[in-house]
Amino acid sequence: MTDVVMPQLGETVTEGTITKWFKNVGDTIAVDEVLFEVSTDKVDSEVPSPVAGTITEFVVAEGDTVDVGTVLVRVDTGGEPAVQSAPAAASAPAAEPAPAPAARASAQTAPLPSPPIFGAPDEPGDGRLLSPVVRRLISDNGLVASEIVGTGMAGRITRADVELLIQAASDGSPSPASKAASASSLPPTEPQQVAAKPAPAAAVEPVGKRDEVIALSNIRKVTGTRMVETKQTSPHVLTAIEVDYENVERVRRAHKAQWKAEEGFSLTYLPFIARALADALEDFPQLNASITDTELTVHGDLHLAIAVDLDFAGLMAPVVRNVDTKRLRAISRDIVDLASRARQKKITASEISGGTFTITNAGQYGTLMQFPLINQPQVAILSTDGISRKPVVVTHTDGSEAIAVHSVGVLALAWDHRAFDGAYAAAFLDRMRTILETRDWEAEI
What we know:
This protein has helices spanning 101-107, 132-140, 159-170, 176-185, 218-233, 246-263, 270-283, 328-343, 422-438; strands at 2-5, 15-21, 28-29, 34-39, 44-48, 53-58, 65-67, 71-76, 82-85, 236-244, 289-291, 296-298, 304-309, 315-316, 319-320, 357-361, 380-395, 401-416. The chain is an alpha+beta fold. The longest helix is centred in the middle third of the chain and has 18 residues, at 246-263.
């Protein structure tokens, strides 16, 4: 009999929620056959079985959140009892070595604003590990981890433990631990910090016979939390510019058939934009940066996060590494590979971490312009919106003008006003436009 346990899905992930079992008791399972689906604060993944045999018992039910190392299911393998840790995916690459603490804090990102690093003690004398969600709840509500009694494995503080304290406080009857924690953690100049926090939203009752109540998925909850955080953290500004893509379009038309035959996927505008972005950032490096309340870290390498839609169920932002060292074809291959595996839930936690700049691409739906939210702790995110055929004024070399029909679209940049000012953002977009409109893209193909 073999015990299959919750795998480690990334160096900072300590728990996961079982969202789906693919087998039933009595079913046979093969090595590397998908056994279950797990959701963490970083990634949703389908996890293959590390062993072959017959399912005898499910220890954890769908919807349960458990720690890494927890026994999930027992499999009769016909051998001696053993404990097996399932890998994140059969072909997943090994996790990258952990960066130094300072670099890790400044560079970490996620499909949306990144969770805090955890694994170190929260405060002197408190050596317990906290998940990003629990850490954030404790911090946002002025609590002290060492004064909270944990009900999880080995006394670990769970999300439910913290939410019970918060709920008790909102009902006007906080527990002694939560009152002491709140009082000890508030600065003298901010006595109303906890009182000013909104109480949990009341449930909305259906009012019509055709109403449907849909429980928010884990990815929707995490997305909501991250989006509120980024709006509260960064003073967002939007700067947009119109780009004439005809120079790019001529190359796409000339090579799209051969490209599709050679690569197996279409040649889109996105890799051209990513390539132009990499060059523009060389002249405007402060956009390829991470920020805290006191310092801006300008990154020497461009690790580009690309927002990927997961069939309208949520977003994920896998990271293309070292875009500044790659040409158009390599960038395109990486984008397609990561996006495909993200939709198949074959992506790993390490592949959605460490981004330094983000692109979100809604242009396939013909959007005019959108205002994206910054992927914390980055300082900017670029929206690539719809490209359509429009009449434009063309100036010839002799100075004469004419009307022509070109492919035109908008690039919209949301940026953090703490990092730089409007002139810097506008000059960056102008540089991107110049590259897209004038580069010899034939040489890239």
